[in-house]
Amino acid sequence: MSARHVLQSSTVDEFQSALDALTKSCVAFKFADPHVVPPVHMDREALRSAAEVTDAGVELDTVIARFADEALPACLNFSAPTFVAHPDAGNSTAGILGGIANVFLQQNLSSFDYSPAATVLETELLRTIRRVIGYPVNDGVSALSAGGGVVFGGAGANFSCLLAAREHLKRRLVAEGKVFDPRRTRVLANRPFSHFSMRRSLFMLGLGNRDLSPAQRAEAGLEEECLCEVASSHFRIDADDLERKIEAVRERGEEIMCIFAVAGDSRFMAFDDLTRLADIAERHQLWLHVDACEGGQVLFSPRRRHLMAGIDRASSISLDPHKVLLVPYNISLFFLRDPQWLTYFSGDPTSLISQDEMSLGGYTPAVNSKSFISLKLLFMLQHWGWDRLAAEIDRRHELARLAAGWIEEQPALRLINPDVSHNAVAFMHIPEGIDDAKRLNRLNQAIHERLNMSTPFFVHACPSRDDEARVRADRGSVFTLRMMFGNPLTNWAIVRECLENVVKIGYELATDPLWQSE
Ligand SMILES: Cc1ncc(COP(=O)(O)O)c(C=O)c1O
Asked: Which domains are delineated in the chain?
């Protein structure tokens, strides 16, 4: 009875026609005309009933039709050229096809036996990206030669690298005759401009003293957070303060697990000075981790990669292709400079699944079964080639520069990151006569809502420290609008029209007596 529900020769025709219907509606979703970004049709009740599961099940074409009619129109379309909120659209043709092929393949890269060809291809791909980073690549073909791994998100990539840093520290301490103490182990970072996955990882790694009462901490002379906050300067780590903090931590008799640097922060895509940080890390023999989930894209552009000069000296790096390399979710990467450090993650040799030297699963923290999610990245790189990809990375910066230039000419707009490092432009609407930060924040929040809900444009907005004191002399929190240009279909005319809408809406709201009286 259930044989009709699996793919086999007798169901091929039904499967093929359902597949055709599905891809047709998905493609239509991608470039519906006009490109509508916000859910055009969000009927919660209809969606809830579209999630219903019945005892008898329904026909395949009903499953597909229900999805196309109820779910698709309510989905956010990252591929719309007017979607300028996040750094990527995931719309490379080859990337999408690689994602589709993966579902058919059903390989399990936890073990070489279950994924022979996929393991070899993924290992080779990781070695290729190591070369792009500038990390050493050895001749071996084992999983260790990948010197990193494929995971499901930047959060997991950061976690993997921080786990390696912790294990590295443990080994160093043992060599010095000391014992690792998670309560007195610190991480140095520019907290306002580090992604929250860093703090979550540190918590998962058992660091810090949040579990103790204030009295217990005071008695033991412990800090609540393992994070030692380094001063921020122009959204970047203040290297002089970093040196001071290293001394201060060591004077307290505490250990440092790593310096957590950022290449392209989540809000403004500012890049830490990696060369300077690598100098400091090497001098103090510290692990330097670089979260390059946003900014790692510049490694693929000969013109832009200067922003990450020194990356080859970092101990570890996390990259997020699903955020910046035109491929659909999910795929993220982590790399360790010395491939041998992967052995810190080696699994239990008595495990059920054979952990031979070819199996990638033995070296990927918190991941066992994993499909060939890297196939979409391989497809995309093969299709685009290095030159076209470099041109795309450069195009993003060019658009960001144009947007910043236009904003600077508008009396009502103000850039929050006047030095646009790569592909993020943050700004606020500041009407004449309003200088109260709270009111300005509320106004920009209202602009954001109205723009995203009532125009075809979709921008991101977030509260942030005003590190350049563009609005607040005390560098306090501002609610900033933010654009990014990761979609090759977004052009300057679209960006300008979006900005014109911001000005118009801002003016309407600021002069609206209702809003003014609030
Ligand atoms: C700088 C940075 N690091 C890490 C992450 C986490 O990545 P993911 O969402 O892929 O887990 C993000 C996500 O926005 C990020 O911006």
From this structure: 108-135+148-373 (3.40.640.10), 382-517 (3.90.1150.170)
